[in-house]
């Protein structure tokens, strides 16, 4: 992956990672977690507050790690799993409501499969080792 492809992949990774982390994870972590936990409880998860924190941190930390390309594959896998649950949550909603979870899921799966690319912190760490 060189040149324009590397730049394109970096843009996709950074924009989707930051949007997920700062646009969705951060408001959950700094907001009323009990409200989000109630939604998690409706899905039938045991320990809904615990799983609400797990999902929120997967979005926040996972999204930021994907954006900078550090521990990219595991971070994308965790964020992707969270988006799979979100897609399940919105399965009966109109497509416009589930579309965002589907987009994030698709990108996170792609990132988990491809990795961070040459312009990532993972790549820099590998070169120094």
Describe, in short, the structure shown.
The chain has 129 residues and is mainly α.
Derived structural class: mainly alpha
Mean pLDDT: 95
Oligomer: single chain
Question: Which segments are poorly predicted (pLDDT under 50) over 5 or more consecutive residues?
Answer: none
CA gyration radius, whole angstroms:
15 Å
Number of helices: 6
The major beta sheet can be summarized as:
none
3D shape: elongated
Binned strand content = under 5%
Cα distance spanning the termini: 20 Å
Characterise this structure:
The protein has 129 residues and is mainly α. It has one domain (4-128). The chain is elongated and about 45 Å long. The model has no long low-confidence stretch (mean pLDDT 95). It starts with a helix and ends with a helix. Helix 1 (4-30) crosses helix 5 and helix 4 runs antiparallel to helix 5. The chain is built from 6 helices and no strands.
């Amino acid at each position: 992956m060189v040149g324009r492809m590397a730049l394109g992949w970096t843009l996709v990774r950074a924009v989707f990672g930051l949007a997920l982390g700062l646009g969705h994870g951060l408001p959950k972590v700094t907001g009323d977690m009990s409200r989000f936990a109630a939604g998690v409880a409706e899905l039938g998860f045991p320990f809904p507050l615990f799983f609400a924190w797990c999902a929120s941190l997967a979005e926040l930390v996972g999204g930021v790690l994907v954006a900078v390309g550090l521990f990219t594959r595991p971070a994308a896998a965790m964020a992707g799993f969270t988006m799979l649950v979100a897609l399940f949550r919105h399965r009966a909603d109109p497509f416009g409501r589930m579309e965002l979870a589907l987009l994030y899921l698709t990108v996170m799966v792609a990132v988990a499969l491809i990795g961070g690319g040459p312009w990532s912190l993972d790549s820099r760490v590998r070169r120094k080792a």
